[in-house]
Specification:
The protein is mainly alpha-helical and about 200 residues long. It contains 10 helices and no strands. It has helices at about 1-20, 25-45, 55-70, 80-100, 105-110, 130-135, 140-150, 155-170, 175-190, 195-204.
């Protein structure tokens, strides 16, 4: 199941990249892969009746993904860019797995065959309760967290949970409305609705 989940998610991402779907569709798929799948894999590993090595499972799944990427013909236009993008997405997922303690730091380097690129350094793991406390202590923290929802580091779910909890708990309705409207306008100018989708996605 662990292996199949990883391969199936990457099959969808590869199909989206090769068919040149919209950037919005691609962003949703990438967000699902990096922000939703690693926590799910953690649950699978923790609830398994048999002891499994999550690192070995991820490694085996990514070997199959690598074979799929390697099979892409270099002839069609933009194939090199597509292959490069898929490898970048693969690294995003692997770093998110490391953050969720599915893969060790040494395992990341081993699977990648090198250290992560400066663009995608290993990030820190967020806790929903800690984020809630941070927002209540320093409300301006919410603005920075909202901008991080769009990133592919594996923390989007915890950020959205914290923002929703604070929104439902302590912020005045007017203040929350102003914040949401302001960020919605920013994302609208970027042609993105990530926050709204992230909230819906987290509730699924």
């Amino acid at each position: 199941m662990f292996h199949d989940l990883v391969v199936a998610h990457f099959d969808v991402v590869v199909a989206v990249v090769l068919s040149e779907e919209s950037q919005q569709t691609l962003r949703l798929c990438r967000s699902c892969l990096t922000n939703k799948l690693p926590p799910l894999l953690s649950l699978v590993a923790e609830s398994s009746l048999e002891a499994i090595s999550s690192e070995q499972c991820v490694n085996q799944a990514l070997q199959e993904v690598d074979s799929e990427i390697a099979s892409i013909s270099p002839a069609p236009p933009n194939s090199a860019q597509r292959i490069s993008l898929l490898r970048e997405i693969r690294q995003e997922f692997l770093l998110a797995c490391h953050m969720h303690k599915l893969v060790s730091k040494a395992g990341v380097a081993s699977i990648l065959g090198a250290s992560p690129t400066p663009k995608q350094q290993m990030g820190g793991h967020y806790s929903k309760d800690e984020l809630v406390q941070q927002i209540r202590t320093h409300p301006s923290r919410a603005d920075r967290l909202v901008s991080e929802v769009c990133t592919m580091q594996g923390n989007a779910g915890y950020i959205v949970q914290a923002l929703v909890e604070v929104r439902m708990g302590t912020w005045p309705i007017e203040t929350c409305a102003d914040r949401c409207q302001g960020h919605a306008q920013i994302l609208s100018k970027q042609g993105d609705g990530t926050i709204e989708r992230a909230v819906q996605f987290d509730r699924s």
